[in-house]
Each structure stands twice: as C-alpha cells, then as structure tokens.
From TrEMBL:
It comes from the Bacteria. GO terms for biological process: polysaccharide biosynthetic process. The keyword NAD applies. This is UDP-N-acetyl-D-mannosaminuronic acid dehydrogenase. The lineage of its organism: Bacteria, Pseudomonadati, Pseudomonadota, Alphaproteobacteria, Sphingomonadales. Signal peptide: none annotated. GO terms for molecular function: NAD binding; oxidoreductase activity, acting on the CH-CH group of donors, NAD or NADP as acceptor; oxidoreductase activity, acting on the CH-OH group of donors, NAD or NADP as acceptor. Belongs to the UDP-glucose/GDP-mannose dehydrogenase family.
Length: 412
C-alpha cells in the first residue's frame, strides 16, 4: 500500500477515504475488528456529512481496504486518540503503540506522519521508539548530521466535526518536519489533496500550533461564559451585552453556553498546561471556568426544579454542539446525568440526534420524548443545545413555563 492510516476514527476514516478518492492506494488500520469489518463492508461507524458515500465509493473501487494489521507502506499516518489521563495529564500510549506497530514493517524511504493532537515532543518520542526497535534504520532527529533513512513529521488535523470532509480539503495545513527534508516528504501526501496552503515548520512548532488554536478558542469561550455568570449576578442580560459590545470594531465576543464539550477544545488546552504548568495560568483558568459553567448551569436547573415541586423539566439537546450526533465530553449530557441522580422521574429529554437515551441516562427513569410531547408535559424548559430542530420554538409554545435558555437561542 502507498498509505497506511492508523486509527479509523473521526479523523482517520475521513482522511483514509479522501486519500483513496484522490487515487492513493490506502490501508486503514484499526485495533477494533468491528470497525474493520464495517469499513470493509463499505459502511461507516460514525456519523459525518458525506462520509458514508466517500467510504462506500473507495471500498467499491478497491482503493481503500481496512485491516487490523499494519502493512508495509510508503506513508504512515497516525490518527489515534490522545485522551486525558488522571490529573489531566496527556495519555499518548495509543500513539506509542502505533509507533511500535509501524516499526517492524517500515522500510527505508517511508514517511511517518503524526496527526493526533499531542503534547509537544510526541513526534520526537515516535522517533525514539522506531530508533529503538529498528537499529538498522537511520531515524531523523533534530541536529542529525548525515541522511536519515525515513522521514518523520507532525501535521495536525484542524477540521470541524460536521464539516470534516469539506475542511480536510479546503483548510490550510501546517506541516512540521523533524527536519526540513521530512516536511518536504510529508508535503507530497498533503499537496495531493489539500486546496488550502501548506505551511512548513518544525514538528515541535506544529505540535504547539495545534494546541494553541484550540486553547485560543477555549479562552475566548471562557470569557463569554464568565460574562454570563457575571451578568447573572448583577442582573443584566448577557446576550444583549454581547450583541452591543460586538458592535465595537475591535470586539468579538463568542457565545456563552452550558459549558464546553467535544473531544478537542475541552481537552487540548490541558496538553499545553502539562508542558509548562507554571506559565500556563490563563489557559488553565479558562479550562476551569468552562468546566465550572456546567456546574453553575446544573445548579440553576436545580433551583428551577425546587421552584416547581413535582414539575417536569424538558431538557432540549444532549450533543456537545448544535446539529451533530456527537455526545463526547458534552456538558449537556453531563448536566442531564447529574440531574438524573436525584430527579430522573421529572426529566424529559429531547434529542433529535439519537433514537435511544445514551447509556448513562438509560434506566434512570428519565424519558426520551419528542419536542411536542415535552412541551405538553413539562412545566420547565431548558435549552442545552441550539439544534436547528428547536429554532422554530415561539414564545407562544412556552407560555406559562419557566424557561432557561443556556444558548440564547430563543433571543435570535
Ligand atoms: N462553544 C460555545 N460558544 C461558542 C463556540 C463554541 O460554547 O461561541 C462550545 C460548543 O458548543 C462546543 C465547544 O465549544 O461545546 C467546542 O465547539 P467548537 O465548534 O468550538 O469546536 P470543535 O470541538 O467542534 O472543533 C474544534 C475546532 N477548533 C477551532 O475552532 C480552533 C476544529 O477546527 C478543530 O479541528 C477541532 O476542535 C479539533 O479536532 O481539534
């Protein structure tokens, strides 16, 4: 195979299928036999716009196959998860395992690219692992004199869930080589399908860039979330404050919500903090503010439940953001789960992006209902996610109910 993509998740599978559609012969590798089987049958195990057609076409054309074994390939792309471990420390064990699986297969001339969001220094760690397992191969490292046998680069993914297939092609890409020659080699793969610019730098800078992008967004959302809590305390409408402040030519405040979710913005800033705990004060505080916003939201819903004894509450939305079926690190889901511990029988969940309640809510006594049923049965309505399906709600639908709109949806 020309390309082996290790990890067939939200990034690996779309990338593997896209590369195949651009004429590369691709082997997608995953440790889960179920995922491999699904993909080989032309199916997908994740919901993402345009992905099913792309995978189906690539499998039919035989440009993509899936396997649990890492093959010999010209390019290896590592797109495995990098979760947070205990104490918010980054866990790069899946990247390390991928490097160990690649090492016995790799031949001189090949290029290894890490795409997983990773703490700074991870690409160097991959180099170390391959060098240890393959003393016969000259692995590139900073300041190395003489030619290396393989290339090694860090090229972060930057795609937005819900727009992955489009953004894979159109976003600019940062290509960080362990050496300049490594970046040039990795660019052969990216320039074949990226219509945005390819920007060259070192692996360490590229690793930092990825973490900084998501920390920037987290800090900005934290500012909006903190404002919403300040506004609450002093009794002004935060949505009106933000709308008017944003009319200043140099002010652009983001939107408050019930907290920050997803597998990226709520996680990656901790990787930056882990690299420089003393220096990263604002980044750490932003994380804490955004996590606290979910606790604050839960408290406000509890106060509403106390205000209407025996009243039912309709929780609108569980996903981590609008119009997506992804519940990973979702503050809406965490809030629903916490409320179910004490008030499950009073909770009605409306979530158009699922057919059954997620495991943490199933069996608690909470019910998944339609929006119409929820409006009929509830005395309290809480907007946790501003799904398009909720946007037609009119004041008349909510007459006589206590309403708490964490997203400012009903004001738009
Ligand atoms: N959110 C707010 N208020 C806002 C914007 C977002 O509360 O004004 C919340 C969302 O509801 C959600 C969370 O923030 O819970 C994150 O959503 P998002 O749309 O900001 O980002 P993600 O996690 O879907 O994708 C991000 C993107 N990064 C940036 O925009 C800097 C994407 O480009 C990255 O590729 C992705 O992380 C990733 O994989 O790292």
């Amino acid at each position: 195979h020309q390309v082996a993509v290790i990890g067939l998740g939200y990034i690996g599978l779309p990338t593997a299928a896209l590369l195949a559609s651009y004429g590369w012969s691709v082997c997608g590798v995953d440790v889960s036999p179920r995922v491999v089987e699904t993909v080989n049958a032309g199916g997908v195990h994740i919901e993402e716009r345009d992905l099913d057609r792309l995978v189906h076409d690539a499998i039919t054309a035989k440009t993509l196959v899936a396997s649990t074994e890492v093959p010999t390939a010209s390019f290896y792309m590592i797109a495995v998860p990098t979760p947070l471990g205990p104490d918010n420390a980054p866990d790069i064990s899946y990247v390390e395992a991928a490097a160990r699986a690649i090492a016995p297969r790799i031949l001189p001339g090949a290029c290894v690219i890490v795409e997983s969001t990773s703490p700074v220094g991870t690409t160097e760690r991959v180099a170390e692992i391959i060098a240890e397992l393959r003393p016969d191969i000259a692995v590139p490292c900073d300041g190395r004199t003489g030619d290396a046998d393989i290339a090694l680069a860090y090229c972060p993914e930057r795609v937005l869930p819900g727009r992955i297939v489009n953004e894979l092609v159109h976003n600019d890409r940062v290509i960080g080589g362990v050496t300049a020659a490594c970046a040039e080699r990795a660019a052969v793969l990216y320039t074949s399908f990226v219509k945005g610019d390819c920007l060259y730098t070192s692996a360490r800078v590229a690793e930092t860039v990825k973490l900084v992008e998501n920390s920037f967004r987290d800090v900005n959302i934290a500012f909006a979330n903190e404002l919403s809590m300040i506004a609450d305390t002093i009794g002004v409408d935060v949505w009106e404050v933000i709308r008017l402040a944003n009319r200043h030519p140099r002010v652009n405040i983001l939107q408050p919500g019930p907290g920050v979710g997803g597998h990226c913005i709520a996680v990656d800033p901790w990787f930056l903090v882990a690299g420089a705990p003393e220096a990263a004060r604002l980044v750490r505080t932003a994380r804490e503010v955004n996590d606290y916003k979910a606790v604050h939201t839960e408290g406000k819903i509890r106060a509403l439940l106390d205000a209407v004894p025996d009243g039912k509450v309709a929780l609108l939305g569980l996903a981590f953001k609008p119009d997506i079926d992804d519940f990973r690190e979702s503050p809406a889901l965490e809030i629903a789960e916490a409320l179910c511990l004490t008030h499950a029988s009073r909770i009605l969940v409306v979530e158009p992006f699922t057919e059954s309640l997620p495991a943490c809510l199933a069996g608690t006594g909470a019910r998944l209902v339609t929006l119409d049923a929820a409006l009929r049965e509830s005395e309290i309505v809480v907007v946790l996610v501003d799904h398009t399906a909720f946007k037609h709600l009119a004041p008349a639908d909510l007459t006589g109910k206590l309403v708490f709109d964490t997203r400012g949806m009903l004001r738009q």
